[in-house]
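Tokens in:
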């Protein structure tokens, strides 16, 4: 087998592996931090619809929390690798 053919096969296999990988958030983050951010953002949105003043610090706080949530995400390659703590709402 030629080196170029081997490289092509390896690249194709890597693409397949990457296609199968996915990210999950742990349940405690979904039920706490993520839920809180959704409510905070809705509050800002509703306030703006009602003509309230905009506070940039509130939005900065949401962004900061979202960045922390993003750090909690974990990558998995198959459903079998996902621990119970990352199966929020799973019926399995």
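Residues out:
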């Amino acid at each position: 087998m030629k080196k170029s053919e081997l490289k092509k096969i390896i690249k194709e296999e890597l693409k397949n592996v990457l296609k199968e990988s996915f990210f999950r958030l742990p349940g405690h983050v979904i039920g706490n931090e993520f839920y809180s951010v959704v409510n905070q953002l809705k509050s800002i949105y509703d306030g703006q619809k009602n003509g309230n003043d905009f506070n940039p610090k509130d939005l900065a706080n949401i962004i900061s929390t979202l960045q922390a949530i993003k750090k909690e995400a974990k990558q998995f390659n198959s459903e079998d690798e996902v621990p119970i703590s990352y199966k929020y709402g799973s019926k399995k």
